[in-house]
Amino acid sequence: MLTAAALVPACGGGSSGGGAAVPKFVIAGVGGNFISTAGGNSTSAAGGKGGALLIQGQSGSGVHSLTGALSIDTSFQVPALVVNLGANPLTISATGSLTPPGTTGVVPGSSPGNATGLHVTNGATLTINADTGGGGSDAHLQFPNGVLVDAGCTIQMGNAAVPSDKVNLIVTASMLVFSGGTTFNSTGNANGGKGGDLKITCSGDIALRGDMSMSGGDMGTFGNAGNGGNLTATSTTAVYFTGLLLTAGGTALVAGLEGGSGGSVTLGGTLSGVFCSADIQTFGGSGRTGGGPGGSIMFAATDAETIVSGNLDTTGGTGLTPGAGGGDGGAISLSTNGFNVRVTGNWASDGGTGQAPSGIGGAGGAVTILQQNKAGASLLMPTQIVTGGMGLSVTISTGGGKGDGAAGAGGDVSITQNLDGIDASLAGLNPLTLAGYDTYGTNGGTGGTTGGDASSIRINNQLFTAAPGNPGAPNPAGPLFNGTTENEVQVAAVGGAGTAGKGGSGGVIQIYGGSSVTNSGLLGVAGGTGAVGGDAGAVGLVNMDLAAGAPTPLPDADAWVSNTAQIMGNGGIGTTGSGGSACTVLLVGHARLTNTGLVLTTAGSGGGASPGGFGSIVILVADGTITNSGVVNATGGGSPGNNGGGGGTLSLNAQHVTHNADVVLVGGNGLNAGGGGRAQFNSQLGGTVMHGNFNLKPGTGATQVTGVLIKDGVDLPLNAGLATY
Predict the structure, then answer these.
(1) Which pLDDT value is given to residue 432?
(2) CA atoms within 13 A on the CB side of 514
(3) Alpha-carbon distance 336 to 334, whole Å?
(4) Pairwise CA distance, residues 543 & 591, whole Å
């Protein structure tokens, strides 16, 4: 059985942070976003495990998980960049080629002497060949000034020493601009050619505004398809990307073998940020003997904001013939040290499909979004005021691929913030907000043998430790701040069904707030049906603001939990074996706890001569007051040939308890009846208010045991397990 400690993270006391107001960067939108980390399905093997989802703030600000027609403002303006080409640029105004004379990157300018920059203009197509005297695979270009490619121009990479491959281009300059309407092409040739890499390093801005094709070549004869080229663009200032990028792996058809791997993408802007509205496709190629893995995508703004609004596709390729496996999805990561994070779009990093009878589904790629700061207000600019927080309105899918050999596991999703150490005056100015979401899901996949387990979903707001008087001091020991947590989104962590084996276990849903927690989204965990039913998992809404050292016996008056939504947690049905236990429910609100939501859980029934599952354990606890008007229905599972499961347990414990709702804790039917449940209401200062219809009857069958109803330590009479008070 899951213990209460598993739902309650380590915590401390302190002041309550802000965060109740919706941040200004939340705007009207379409909504309908979701996050899904589901495990893949399998008709003959185990279902895939769902990936974990972590949404966690740590800045003394609010964590907002919002539904409805909302979005995030991810607008940005590419500045009018003026490229300094220097005194002697190499100007290309007619279609032609460039072969660097050596491997240093130095090339002649249009006038005598070395080129100070590069300007491609007048609709020209420039083909860049490998360095003279090099290995035949790379071309180096190095300029003390900038590179400018005008609209309507094309950069075409030449063939490498391996004729099907394209040359890799390495550019070093002060600034680089590919204007809108430009084309960069390093796509691998047919017969499995590798796409050429592009590496750009600039001390100034990089603007990629055209379309870029760097995919691997397809393979139609014997051999693997080509891998996509890798793009790396790093600037000391900013990177802007508004075009289209394709670094996908090639497809292997006819007599080909494996699909190509998608090329990786890295965009890094150190001081001024990364701004990307481009659609980026790094998916793995499909292949006769196996799909290729998707390429990874990384956005890294070392000390600046990150805004991403394009669609990303890092999915694994599909296996095309019987027994061929699917490719893994590529990872997606975004990080910044303390500055704004704004994200919209659709991100897919699902694993590829494996074909029957033995193909293995690809694993979903992990998604990581991180705002961190561990050395004061800023790592490189100590005077920078860190405000803005994180705003996301992006659909994320990291599902495992279908596979009859074995299904793929879903990829983990981590959306986290760690701003420990920024100045105390900034507490409350960096909210973590997800806007316009319908669902979060970490479900396990269905299996021909066992079902896949669901994974945890945690929406947390951790204790934030501000810096001391000097915001840049190491090992901060300043004041402590707790933030609020609110969730409106429907959340599900359901185990997959198992045909010949055990159903998958449900996951753990935890919503944790340093000061207050409010939830209005349906919360559902469940065990999967199987030969043996899966257990349901657990749901916890927890507040842990204890106001350390407070002179009064009660904690901070803002330390409360409020739930208005239904909580569901059924155990899985056992078709031949035992039924799964229903979920554990734990609601902890230190100053006060209010619940109006229905708690509806049923343990799984057992099959044949196996017992039914046990009903839920439902615990509501507060140091101050509990007010509950939500019906609790926690019944045990039945069994045609064994014992019925016991009815659930309900416990309310606080200084003052008020309960106005019906309670159903009925045992399951069986050869021997499941016993009625236990309901206990305890006010530490006495005077519990308790009204409702109480049904603590045993199930039908032999050896019937009626449940127990206790109020303030006194057993109350029941009439055949029924009472009204």
Answers:
(1) 95
(2) 31
(3) 7
(4) 9
pTM of the model: 0.94
3-state SS, one letter per residue, for 420-481: CCCCHHHCCCCCEEECCEEEEECCCCCECCCCCCCCCEEEEECCEECCCCCCCCCCCCCCEE
CA atoms within 13 A on the CB side of 663: 35
Q: Where are the domains of the chain?
A: 36-72+389-467+479-544, 74-325, 560-725
- What is the predicted pLDDT for the residue at 431? 93
CB atoms within 10 A of CB 414: 17
Nearest to 227 by CA among 254, 258, 185: 258
The total of other beta-carbon atoms located within 10 Å of residue 719's CB is: 8
Cα dihedral 92→93→94→97 (10° resolution): 10
Can you tell me the distance from the alpha carbon of 20 to that of 35, in angstroms, rounded to the nearest whole number? 23
What is d(CA 492, CA 438) in angstroms, rounded to the nearest whole number? 11
Tokens of 56: 């966690």
First-to-last CA distance in the chain?
32
* pLDDT reported for residue 303: 79
CB 487 within 8 A of CB 65: yes
* Residues with Cβ within 8 Å of residue 24, at least 6 apart in sequence: none
pLDDT attached to residue 591: 87
- Residue pair 27/70 in contact (Cβ under 8 Å)? The answer is yes
pLDDT for position 478:
59
**Cα(200)–Cα(147) distance, integer angstroms:** 11
* DSSP state letter for 319: B
Q: What pLDDT does 477 receive?
A: 53
At 1-41, the pLDDT tens digits run: 333 333 433 333 333 344 456 788 999 999 999 999 999 99
Fill in the DSSP letter of residue 323. Answer: T
- The burial of 142, by beta-carbon neighbours within 10 Å (0-12 exposed, 13-18 middle, 19 or more buried), is given as middle
- pLDDT (0 to 100) of residue 21: 67
pLDDT of residue 470: 44
- Taken in order 64, 459, 428, 553, the sign of the CA dihedral is positive
3-class secondary structure, 4: helix
How far CA 319 is from CA of 132, 285, 293, 390, in Å, comes to 40, 9, 11, 38
List Cα–Cα distances, 45 to 316, 445, 504, in angstroms. Answer: 20, 11, 13
Cα–Cα nearest to 246, from 163, 318, 184, 171: 184
pLDDT, one tens digit per residue, over 511-536 is 998 788 999 999 999 999 999 999 99
Between CA 593 and CA 620 the distance in angstroms is 8
DSSP, res 157: E
Rounded-to-integer distance, Cα 589 and Cα 348, Å: 37
Cβ burial of 724 (10 Å; 0-12, 13-18, 19+) is exposed
All residue ranges of the chain with pLDDT < 50 are 1-19, 376-383, 469-476, 546-554
Distance CA 380, CA 269 (A): 13
Q: Is the dihedral angle over the CA atoms 20, 22, 25, 30 positive or is it negative? A: positive
Amino acid (one-letter) located at 183: T
Identify the pLDDT of residue 563: 98
